[in-house]
Amino acid sequence: MTFRSKTAWFFGWAWLVFVAVNTVDLVVRGTLPSALVVGAVLGFVTWMTYLLALRPATITEQGGVRVRNPFRTAYLPWSAVDDVTVTSAITITGGGLTVRCWTPMPTARERAKSLRQQNRQVRRGRYPTTEPTLSKGEQAAREAMAGRVHADWVADEIKELATARKGQSTGEPTVTWAVDSLAATAAFLVLVVAAFLVV
Questions:
Q1: Is 56 or 123 the better-scoring residue by pLDDT?
Q2: What are phi and psi of 94, to 5 degrees?
Q3: Among the listed residues 120, 195, 158, 149, the one whose alpha carbon sits nearest the alpha carbon of residue 1
Q4: pTM
Q5: CA distances to 14, 16, 50, 166 from 42, in Å
Q6: Residues 6+ apart with CB under 8 A from 94
């Protein structure tokens, strides 16, 4: 299963469609050097969009968890996962490696909103005179859910999978450079250098 920011993913692809249309327009009607300068600006925003919105993902697989960050990809087999914590990011530790996931990212605003929703008073009727009483089970569930955000659910899912599949996977954690990110960076730099040389 792939966990990422759906909003960032949607707007990232919308931006790529916008860039494709504008690139065709620049090729057909653009003139040098202004077309290259505009192309370099579009290239910069596209590069940032790819690195920050489209590439980051936390992927649970049969044998382990793969964390794609902007420039690196980490893979931890389930047997190597020791702990999963959530602070300002999901952090997975295991096999001497600590990996911070870029997505899904918990925010203070999202956590505060979750707390507000949990603490909201339940109102029944148009003019409630007494506050409804919750059973012990309802109160316990309400307290357990207070302040939980999407990142907490993802961390719990990773912990459960690591516990359930620990004996079914082998291998060592690995961290590799993201070739696609390095290629996108090189293409962007070539575009910037070409724009500077023409101007």
A1: 56
A2: 170, 145
A3: 158
A4: 0.77
A5: 13, 10, 12, 45
A6: 76, 80, 81, 82, 83, 173
| pLDDT in the model for residue 103 | 87
Please write the tens of the pLDDT for every residue from 1-40.
Answer: 999 988 999 999 999 999 999 999 988 988 888 888 898 9
3-state SS, residue 174:
strand
Alpha carbon distance 191, 169 (integer Å)? 44
3-state secondary structure of 163: helix
- Amino acid 184 reads A
3-state SS class at 144: helix
Supply the pLDDT for residue 165: 92
Q: What is the DSSP letter of 89?
A: S
Residue 57 amino acid letter:
A
Three-state DSSP state, 159:
helix
What is the total residue count of the chain? 199
CB atoms < 10 A from the CB of 133, how many?
7
